[in-house]
Amino acid sequence: MSAEPSARSFDSSYPDPGDMLVVRGGTPLCGEIRVRGAKNLVSKAMVAALLGSTPSTLYDVPAIRDVEVVTGLLRLHGVRVESLGDGRLVLDPANVETADVEELNVHAGASRIPILFCGPLLHRLGRAFIPDLGGCRIGGRPIDFHLDALREMGAVVDKTPDGLVITAPDGLHGTTLRLPYPSVGATEQVLLTAVLADGITELHNAAVEPEITDLIALLQKMGALITAHTDRLLRIEGVPALRGYAHRPLPDRLEAASWACAALATRGDVLVRGARQADLMTFLNVYRAVGGEFEVDDDPVDGGIRFWHPGGDLGAVALETDVHPGFMTDWQQPLVVALTQARGLSIVHETVYENRLGFTDALVTMGATIQVYSACLGATPCRFGHGGYRHSAVISGPSKLQGNDLVIPDLRGGFSHFIAALAAEGTSRVFGVHLIDRGYEDFGAKLAALGATVDGPAYERAGLRLAGGPLEAAR
Ligand code: EPU
């Protein structure tokens, strides 16, 4: 792998120059890669292990930084986390203990997962300390739904300068709750808290994403009593104790769609082994509407979905992101890059996060024609219509993209920058590569497997994983 050394100098506002990759664009991505367990289930499943009275085993865990962060947090709470290789993780919560606040605060800002420790820690220890949260900067990302639900179930929340201290002096009890919006995280919060609470919890307007369904399946294995009704209603009957689980998570449908969009934008052909049609049906409809081709292989071991650009022009589309079963917000950013190559005007209305179109500024510097509006450019006005949020985009294509310097803003936006760099003519320098490691396993190795020409300091540093293997942090 090599790339022409760039003559451009470093702008002092760029992040660490060692955290940079040089991408030489213009080559279609072709080949095959595999996706493993979904990041957005695996991290929650690891937290759920805290609820069991016996060890849990999680299969197909990807080697990504979010898993390392949760591993670190669990260990601080006395959970034994052991990697048995090949993505197998054993989590033993026999000795759960209160973690040191200063040590926990080392993880502040690294992830949003700590908020989900509340229920399990309250059940195990009667007290939870939650450091400042992190995660992608794609909107305000408040936690009011989480805290309101916990309070309704009997928790007392104290805000301290270090973080949140949460107690449950009289224990946690079931109640009737209605989420103002079907939040994935708040639904998980209620599930992880209500399963061991006293009595019955009814959660109205719950999220129903496949990752939620998989978490419910895992909790059911542990002995939880959860019924999913129509109209986003979950009914959880608290039980006195739960056991450990053995669980193989659903495959990562966000990563699968990311590589599918990379194939489309670079006029390539990528087989994503492990991708499952049932989790991607809405995405596949849009992929086909844009002009992408796909072929599903249902083999349970080696199956997957092959995605390719069939030649000729792609077509423009109008879409709105939405909660499941709508078009996922996480699919939006990679798809927008492909839409810069489609003929005509595409419209994207982002209705889940108020600030998830910032990554398009970089695409414009590369030659894309994208205008971002604060009005709702969709069939249905959304929550962000009157706040001045730039949450609708009009993309006019096809555009010839040129390589440029790019600074990764967040996980999915960063992947999109890479796709744009790969689709562009010339060389790009992509800074902030470590953010990709949060959710894309073996990113460098997968790019190489698909024939991308990528090089640079981040390749030489441990931060970018080059090959699979046991989890660094869980060894
Ligand atoms: N919201 C509130 N108050 C709350 C919670 C959420 O106003 O207390 C709002 C959010 O601000 C947002 C909307 O509700 O506007 C939806 O947020 P949600 O809670 O559903 O998102 P999340 O649980 O924080 C997870 C994924 C995201 C994914 C969303 C939507 C994880 C760790 N993160 O976030 O994934 O985009 O659900 O499906 O599961 C990613 O993987 O890159 C990623 C950002």
UniProtKB/TrEMBL annotation:
It holds the Pfam family EPSP_synthase. It comes from the Bacteria. It comes from Actinocatenispora comari. Keywords: Cell cycle, Cell division, Cell shape, Cell wall biogenesis/degradation, Cytoplasm, Peptidoglycan synthesis, Pyruvate, Transferase. NCBIfam families: murA, PRK09369.1. GO terms for cellular component: cytoplasm. It is found in: Cytoplasm. Phosphoenolpyruvate binds at K39, N40. It catalyses: phosphoenolpyruvate + UDP-N-acetyl-alpha-D-glucosamine = UDP-N-acetyl-3-O-(1-carboxyvinyl)-alpha-D-glucosamine + phosphate. This is UDP-N-acetylglucosamine 1-carboxyvinyltransferase. One of its GO terms (molecular function) is UDP-N-acetylglucosamine 1-carboxyvinyltransferase activity.
